[in-house]
Amino acid sequence: MKRIAILGSTGSIGRQTLEVIANHPLEFGVEVLTARSNSKLLIEQAARFLPSMVVITDNSHLDTVRTALAGLPVRVCGGEDALEEAVTAAGVDIVLAAMVGFAGLIPVIHAIKAGKQIALANKETLVVAGELVTRLAAENKVGLLPVDSEHSAIFQCLTGEKHAEVDKIYITASGGPFRKLDITALEKVTSHDALKHPTWNMGAKITIDSASLMNKGLEVIEARWLFNLRPEQIDVIVHPQSIVHSLVQFCDGSIKAQMGLPDMRLPILYAMSYPKRLNGLFPKFDFAGYPSLTFEAPDSVRFPNLAIALEAMRSGGNMPCIMNAANEVAVEAFLHDKVGFYGMTRIIEKTIQKATFLSVAGLSEYIESDREARSIASSFV
Ligand code: NDP
Ligand code: MG
């Protein structure tokens, strides 16, 4: 049995991971659950799955969780520092990283250094520090198994293939809820409109990133590091039905695609069961429901965040870290209706111009760049 530590168990990915585990009780067990502030759900999850340890990082909820779980064989800890112990505990086999944003980076680094397998949903980890994280994973002989559906697709297509024979990859994008809107209409959209994603049901931050296509930019950077590709080997293609999850083109011109219903429980299951496949107990694809699958080029004029992310990747160094921090601030501001759709883009552009660029960076520089960029971005909200 593989014992799982779920970072961010109360979120969209965390909850679906628990569903997958509940469906495969002989293969998986829950060792650790963590949340930031949703004490109510964390308590319910802990009472049901009885992990060895739970962490609530917002200490103001610690007493509530402790009192509710008193009498159960579950250790309750509070604060961000407790995440280090949670991911390095002897009983943990796989760390499923599903916290959102930059906050997910440090626990993943601790887990890698402790030799734990990583099932990675938190794409910001590789956006901010892809070079560092993939190097540490190689040094510690730790697998970084993608949970992001596009990256799971590419990972599955690459199984049994040689890296040198990969020509390029195509990352598919649904196009989000605003795919057909023009610039005038986009200037007026609200967070309420953006939170209605046509094909995926996800946490708030990634749903806004999907609407602005920033999510695809983050995913290109994530893919660059996960699969050791050059930026020019990665293309984005809009596929509104979200059935083809991504494709790999080989040197002979052959293309492999991975397909399935848009259901994150599938890539979550694969990341945890790899190299095995287990029975998926969820609805399966039916061609009758999808008479046509379509593909079109993304529009980086209406959706400039995609182009900004690609440019940040080409700049390298701490630029993706700066861009990511500015985006986190911008998305938060958009969610609270403090800026409009293109207001997010302006915050990111102005932060990139003002923040300190470093062509070479390590963890301490990323932490400082994230702090500086957040402070600059906040001044533009
Ligand atoms: P959610 O917002 O739904 O959940 C985030 C989880 O992380 C919650 O458990 C939350 O706790 C916890 N959390 C948030 N911030 C912090 C923090 N600063 N410190 C500690 N814990 C924190 O996000 P998603 O599940 O949608 O996404 C998680 C990650 O997976 C993101 O990086 C996203 O890009 C990626 N991803 C998500 C997909 C999806 O379908 N949802 C698909 C592909 C990738 P609390 O509930 O207490 O706030
Ligand atoms: Mg994705």
Based on DSSP secondary structure assignment, what is the total number of beta strands?
11
Give me the side-by-side strand order of the main sheet: 4-3-2-1-5-6-7
Give the biggest sheet: 7 strands, parallel
Bound molecules: NADPH dihydro-nicotinamide-adenine-dinucleotide phosphate, magnesium ion
* Count of alpha and pi helical runs: 16
**How many structural domains does the protein architecture include?**
3
- N- to C-terminal distance: 48 Å
Q: Averaged pLDDT, please? A: 97
Which stretches are low in confidence, meaning pLDDT under 50 for 5 or more residues running? none
Structure description:
The chain has 381 residues and is α/β, with parallel strands linked by helices. The chain folds into three domains: 2-146, NAD(P)-binding Rossmann-like Domain (Rossmann fold); 151-315, no CATH class; 316-381, Orthogonal Bundle (Rna Polymerase Sigma Factor, Chain: A). Helix content is 45%, strand content 15%. The protein is built from 16 helices and eleven strands. The protein has helices at 12-23, 39-49, 62-69, 82-88, 105-113, 124-139, 149-158, 183-186, 191-194, 204-212, 214-226, 265-273, 304-315, 319-335, 341-354, 363-379; strands at residues 2-7, 28-35, 53-56, 75-78, 94-97, 117-120, 144-146, 166-173, 234-238, 244-250, 255-259. A seven-stranded parallel β-sheet has the order 4-3-2-1-5-6-7, with helices on both faces. Strand 5, helix 5 (105-113) and strand 6 (117-120) form a beta-alpha-beta unit. Helix 4 crosses helix 5 (105-113), helix 6 (124-139) runs parallel beside helix 11 and helix 14 (319-335) packs parallel to helix 16 (363-379). The radius of gyration is 20 Å and the shape is globular. The N and C termini lie far apart (48 Å). The mean pLDDT is 97. NADPH dihydro-nicotinamide-adenine-dinucleotide phosphate binds at residues 8-14, 35-38, 57, 98-100, 103, 121-124, 148, 200, 202-206, 264.
